[in-house]
Amino acid sequence: MKYQALFSPAAFRRTLVAVSLAAAYSTPWALPVFTFNPGAAGVGLVGAPVTADNILISDFSTVTNVGTSNFSETGFLSVTGFQLGGTNVVAGGLNSTYSLYYSFSGTGHLTTGTNASNPNTTVTAGVFDTLTYSLIGASGNATFGFSGTTPTVNSTAPQVLATGSLINGNVVSTPANGNTAFVPSANASVTFQQAAGKTGFFSPQPFYDMAFTAFTNTVSTVQPFAGGFSIVNGGGSVNFAQPIPSRKRMR
């Protein structure tokens, strides 16, 4: 089985929210603007407030095949930077005096292809069935790696800033490099809930209730092993929106 990670451009379009992957796409809709203020999050986070509309992510995760069509995934998404209107913005202290990262785990199943399919020659696709995550702030520079195929993080005084779970999500893997490798990609929409006592970190208030993310990895970030693969320093982005009221609410 071949796929990868967390959050959804399709979901963005369905909710009329324009999502860009690290400024790789142009869009007629503006992304919702937010401000993160590390100094207001509690003890241990030191950094300047940053205003942005897009969070840049580096992915360290492992996908494991389960049976013929199921999979599980676990890992970390390191926040590497921010953008506003497609332009990188300075986040004073990020990955120096403080770090931000997502810890996540999920399960899903394939709808096209099976775990026995050769990902170098066969397109596979599937959906997430479960997905939970925590947005974590830590002092200093958190570092990421692997113990065998298990993703690891080394961080100081980590504290949970927000949590969330799956709304919907999709995974796809396509052959690459003349059928000698494969590229996994994924997208998902998730709920977003601020942790108790951490609302000072987030602005505006009330903060957005949904988060969206998408990943398309390069061949060099994919490391296959028997029964799955790891993503080492893959790329993606996260942004936010309020849910659009249902028709019933709008009447």
Summarize the helix and strand pattern as letters: HEEEEEEEEEEEEEEH
Number of domains: 1
Q: Report the major sheet.
A: 8 strands, antiparallel, barrel
The radius of gyration is 18 Å
Oligomeric status:
single chain
Describe this protein's structure:
The protein is mainly beta and about 250 residues long. Helices cover about 5% and strands about 55% of the residues. It has two helices and 14 strands; from the N terminus they run H-E-E-E-E-E-E-E-E-E-E-E-E-E-E-H. It has helices at about 10-15, 245-250; strands at about 35, 50, 55-65, 70-85, 85-90, 100-110, 125-145, 150-175, 180-190, 195, 200-205, 210-215, 220-225, 230-240. Strands 3-4-6-7-8-9-12-14 form an eight-stranded antiparallel β-barrel. The protein has a three-stranded antiparallel beta sheet with strand order 2-1-11, with no helix packed on it. Strand 4 and strand 5 form a beta hairpin.
How do you describe this structure in short?
The protein has an 8-stranded antiparallel barrel.
